[in-house]
Each structure stands twice: as structure tokens, then as C-alpha cells.
Amino acid sequence: MNKLDDMLTVKKICLELRKLIEDAVKRNLCEGLLLSGGLDTSILALVASKFVTQKAFTVALSGAPAPDVEYASLIAKKLGIKHHIHYFYEDELYDAIYATIKIMRSFDPMEIRNSAVIYIALKHAKEEGLNAIMTGDGSDELFAGYSFLFNLEGEKLKLELENLWRNMYFSSIPLSKALGIEAKLPYLDPHIRDFASKLDPSYMIREEKGRKWGKWILRKAFEGILPDEIVWRIKTPIECGSGTTILPSLFNRRISDEEFQEKKRKYFESDKVVIRDKEQLFYYEIFRSIIGVPRPMKGKRTCPYCNSDLEEEAKYCRTCGAYPI
Fold it and tell me: How many domains does the chain have?
């Protein structure tokens, strides 16, 4: 395909994708949105603001670097959206960690770091009177937003994406259910999923502006419509955008090396659970007190690090976060 034909194809794909997203947002329309200021939630904010008065919610750990606040404020101001920014402190975070571990039945540090933030945001939206809220979940999986995919091409990329699609799981769904608020995920609309499954992966990951980008076609679809700072914002995990990325260093300071080594040995001998670091130790003790020692239930494939059940094709453990397995 020559450059001109490629440009025309990209333009056609972008038009179709914008229409699919608009239709999906209409089908999931509600007044609330979890707004990180990343590409995915900013697109939802842009489209939804055409049809309903929006309330956007952004949360961040007080005193920690939290770039989501800056980017979310930028898009909220541009669209004239009522923007709720909630700064939480350690006490609220610890309460959210406890609740998240109980709901998610997990002591995976990455999962807890990210999902506790979602829990706080959903709880804040609920307290503001909302009974439904949109999230940007699903876009990274459908359109190859994760950096571990960037060096894959062609059939290898397609196979990895198909594996992601089969195993997609979003904590916003069980967390919102536990809080009594409905999470709406427009990117998981069947029409968008079908579109992504048929899209040539070469339109998902491409080099531009001197670097490789995931979700390239999604960026191009809203280039010139959303601010460049949003369209070409590098993907930032929730923990980095909200400030909870500092949690490992916080636990490293609060738990001594002696206590960690002693408890690591204890839980391996008594529970056959491998504890990787101090942060995970903190989460495991909560998990153990609420749920108990992990044990296989289905009698099939189990995690070698915590003995929890695994899906047959799983590459990581949702209970302890072990990867690869």
C-alpha cells in the first residue's frame, strides 16, 4: 500500500471509529465519568458532553505526584464539565485497600494499588448522588495500549491481543457493584469489540513523533479534536497518575527488614505462599484475615506461588499477581 492509499484508509477507519464510539457512549450515557485525563476517558468526556451535563471525578493521593489532576483539569475546563477533584489521605487509602482486597479477593500489589484508587473514586461519585458512572476500561486491551505489546508485529501481535480479549477483567465492575453504583464501560460495546477484532494490528501500534505508540488509530481519530497534550499523552497507569505509585516505598519504610524476613519465612512454611516484598506482605495479612489462606478449589491448574486456582490460559495469577506463570 502506498502512502496516499494508507492515508485514505486511515481517514476512513477514523471516521468509522468515531461513529462507533459516539453510538456506544449514547447507549451507556450517564451523568458521571471517572476522568484521568488520559486519551480514553477524555474521548468519553468529549462525546458524552454533547448529550448530557457531565460530572467528572478525579482522585489523587495528597502530597504525592499525581499528573492525572493536571490533565483531567485541562480537558474538563475545555469541555465545561463540572469537575470534582478529591484528594485522599493515608487513612482513607488504607480503608480503601482493605475494602478492595475484600471485594477483589486479591493481594496482588499492582491490582490493589490501582483498584483502591478506583474504589475511592467510585465511592466519592456515589456520595455525590450518582447511581451510574462511565469508565475508560477496555480501550487498552482492544487497541493495544500496553507497552509490552509494542515490539510485537503481525500474527504475534494478533495472537497476544486475542489472548488479552479472552481474559479481560476490570475491577470497576465488582467494586461498583459492592458500592451500589453501576459502572458503564462504552469501549466494551459489542460493535467496538467487533471493530477491533477485525482491524489490522498495524493500525494499533505505529511509530510517530520519534516513538512507538499504542492505540495509534484511536489517537489519530481524535487528533485535532482533543488537545495534543491529551491525544499524545503517554499511557500512565492509574497508580502513577493518582500518586499511589509511592506505596512500595512507604511500606519499605514502615516494615523493617527483620519483620519482613521473619514473616516471609513464616507464611511460606505455614501457608505455602511466596511473599515478594513488603507491600505484598501488608496486603497478604489483610487478605489472610478476611478471606483466609488461599487454597485450590477446582482441582485444575494452580499458582505455584500461592496455590490459588488459575484459568488454563492464564499467564499471571489474579490472586497474588505472580507473572509469568
Answer: 2
| Cα 91 to Cα 96, 100, 106, 131, 288, distances in angstroms | 9, 14, 20, 25, 21
Q: Which residue in 170, 165, 196 sits closest to 185, CA to CA? A: 170
User: Residues 266, 192: one domain?
Assistant: no
Boundary (domain end) residue, out of 181, 208, 243: 243
* Side chain identity at residue 310, one-letter code: L
Write the pLDDT tens digit of every residue in 209-261: 899 999 999 999 999 999 999 999 999 999 999 999 999 999 999 999 999 99
pLDDT category of residue 180 using cuts at 50, 70 and 90: very high
Judge if 151 and 195 occupy the same domain: yes
Tell whether 32 and 121 lie within a shared domain.
Answer: yes
Spatial separation of the C-alpha atoms in residues 219 and 232, rounded to whole Å: 7
pLDDT > 90: percent of the chain: 91
State which residues form the domain around 191. 3-243
DSSP state of 302: B
Residue 82 bridge partners (DSSP)? 55
Q: pTM of the entire structure?
A: 0.95
Quick check: is 248 in a domain?
A: no
- Give yes or no for residue 266 having a pLDDT over 90: yes
Residues 99 and 77 in one domain: yes
Angle between helices 278-290 and 257-271 (to 10 degrees): 50
Q: Tell me the residue length of the chain.
A: 325
CATH number for the domain harbouring residue 167: 3.40.50.620
- Of 201, 82, 169, 88, the closest CA to residue 130 belongs to 82
